[in-house]
Design brief:
rod-shaped, mainly alpha, about 120 residues
């Protein structure tokens, strides 16, 4: 792990956000491919470190899980914010805009239920 990164734990999860990815339509990956690759690489390092430092490896695993959870939470928060911007424009929104927004909310809701 880069020493300049903040140390997280699963207990810190509720406190903030990290980079995310938003999706227009349909289910897609929850995280950007480069984020997934970085997290998987980091997991390999944690797992390998268990032999020499088991306690530290478990602490790092907790931090890594917390980081992944924050990425996912921010992804959904950004997606919801983008959806809200599409229809929350006062009287300038027509029925078709609202229909499209409802479709996107349905897709978003279905993705939330699959996590």
């Amino acid at each position: 792990m880069n020493r300049t990164e903040e140390h997280l734990s699963t207990a810190d999860f509720v406190a903030g956000g990290v980079q995310a990815v938003a999706h227009e339509e349909g289910p897609g990956p929850l995280l950007l491919p480069d984020v997934v690759q970085e997290l998987r690489g980091r997991w390999d390092e944690v797992q390998t470190g268990f032999v020499d430092e088991p306690r530290q490896a478990v602490q790092q695993a907790d931090e890594l899980v917390a980081r992944a959870m924050k990425h996912i939470a921010e992804s959904f928060a950004n997606e919801r914010q983008n959806l809200e911007r599409q229809w929350d424009r006062g009287d300038e929104v027509n029925t078709e805009d609202l229909r499209q927004a409802l479709r996107k909310y349905r897709t978003f809701f279905q993705r939330l239920l699959t996590v």
